[in-house]
Design brief:
The protein contains one helix and 13 strands, in the order H-E-E-E-E-E-E-E-E-E-E-E-E-E. It is mainly beta. Strand 4 and strand 5 form a beta hairpin. The longest helix is centred in the N-terminal third of the chain and has 11 residues.
Length: 214
Amino acid sequence: MGAALMMAALFAMPCFAQTTPVNYQVTATVPTQFGLIVSATSIDANGTPGPSDDIWGTPVPNGNVSFGTLTLDTDNMVFISSSYYAVDVAIIANSGWTSLLHSATSVTNGTDNLDNNINVTTIACSIVGTDECATSGTTAIDIQKLSYTSAMSMTVTPVDVDIDIAGQWLRIFYGLSSGNDPLNPQYDDNPGVSPVPASQPSGSYTGTITLTLS
């Protein structure tokens, strides 16, 4: 009897609905991202000047550019490498960036160097999931074509190309000169670059490239 009276009393209590707006928040924090994702890919030129039959290797995160032991081309009396490199650089900067500095030390054996024998070509890629950006053309934007010497202090800015859009990145090619072919002038060396002569002193040549985002 007492329990029934208590239940009746509860149901008899007035129920008031909230008549003023009720606010609650939805929150999330997006962290600041500022840095570079870099990978290097060795490319076998397959003995031809054009890129259509090139064989791309597997990208190596933060990999090195290693031309290996050069081969003497006895027809032209120059040293050549069978491969060149593509270094892909993704700029991750959700609060903006002002410049990317490409700096480098001489590729030297301590006495002589190969600085004027290496092509450095920078392009902006805008294709996702294909190798079409391997050559300059409708799928890429040329930024700079330099010798390694000139690229010792090279700067890329957002004015050069908008690479903040998803799916876009920089690609920097490093290739040892094999000489210019009159039948394929589109593949000529960059200004200031020439082949490694047969008289080049032997030894292990090493240099360091540094990318700095600001």
